[in-house]
Amino acid sequence: MINSVESFSDLVLPQQAQEDGGVSPISDKKQQSVKLVFFSAPWCGPCRLSNPVVKDVMKQFQSQMDVYEVCTDDLPEVAEMTGVVSIPTIQIYYGGEIKDTIVGCVAKNVLAASVTKVLEEVAASSS
């Protein structure tokens, strides 16, 4: 569970300072991994239905991506800065950029297909 704007930025949107004062993406392998971010809230029924789906997909792809949860009640500023207006929302990031967004409840195979698509795009761009 991400518990602050800073931890979201550090874990999902990694950047490093450059000598000229600008920022550039970190090239560290761990920092460049695919990251799935699940935006939810405890009172949200569809979010509770999505939880087991996200956990199943997390297990299926555990060696290929990192998974984080953001409670929009606790961190509305993170939801705002990422453009999340409805929950549940799942965003898949790579290199600090959103590669795919899924809004609402989805079946495991739909989420897994989205993750697979992003992983294939990342692999293709790396070769």
Number of helices: 4
Weakly predicted, low-confidence segments = 16-27
SSE-based structural type: alpha+beta
The total count of strands amounts to 6
Q: Strand content of the residues, in percent?
A: 25-35%
Task: Please tell me about this protein's structure.
With 127 residues, the protein is an alpha+beta fold. The chain contains four helices and six strands, in the order H-E-E-E-H-E-H-E-E-H. It has helices spanning 5-12, 45-60, 76-82, 108-126; strands spanning 15-17, 23-25, 34-40, 65-71, 89-94, 97-103. The termini are far apart.
Short description:
With 127 residues, this protein is α+β, with helices and mostly antiparallel strands. Helices cover 39% and strands 26% of the residues.
Looking at this protein, list some descriptive labels:
127 residues, alpha+beta, four-stranded mixed β-sheet, 4 helices, globular
Element layout with pairings:
Elements: H1 5-12, E1 15-17, E2 23-25, E3 34-40, H2 45-60, E4 65-71, H3 76-82, E5 89-94, E6 97-103, H4 108-126
Parallel strand pairs: 3-4
Antiparallel strand pairs: 1-2, 3-5, 5-6
